[in-house]
Amino acid sequence: MPQKDPCQKQACEIQKCLQANNYLEARCEAVLQEMRRCCAQYPKGRSICCSGFEKEKREREKLKAASNGIHAAPQ
Questions:
Q1: What sign does the dihedral 70-73-74-75 (CA atoms) show?
Q2: Got a GO cellular component term for this one (predicted)?
């Protein structure tokens, strides 16, 4: 039997918040931050719910490196 996704609760909270706020992400920033915190606690691939947040993190790191004049290693 597969293990329960450790960040599933936060993912569901995001969906509820988005639905309640006509999908305006700015109104759900608190629950998005909770999801990011949850995803940061687990190794890559542990939570399927975190796959989009892992991509977001990689993109932020690339942008930060580019703004500092450093080329990020390809992933």
A1: negative
A2: mitochondrial intermembrane space
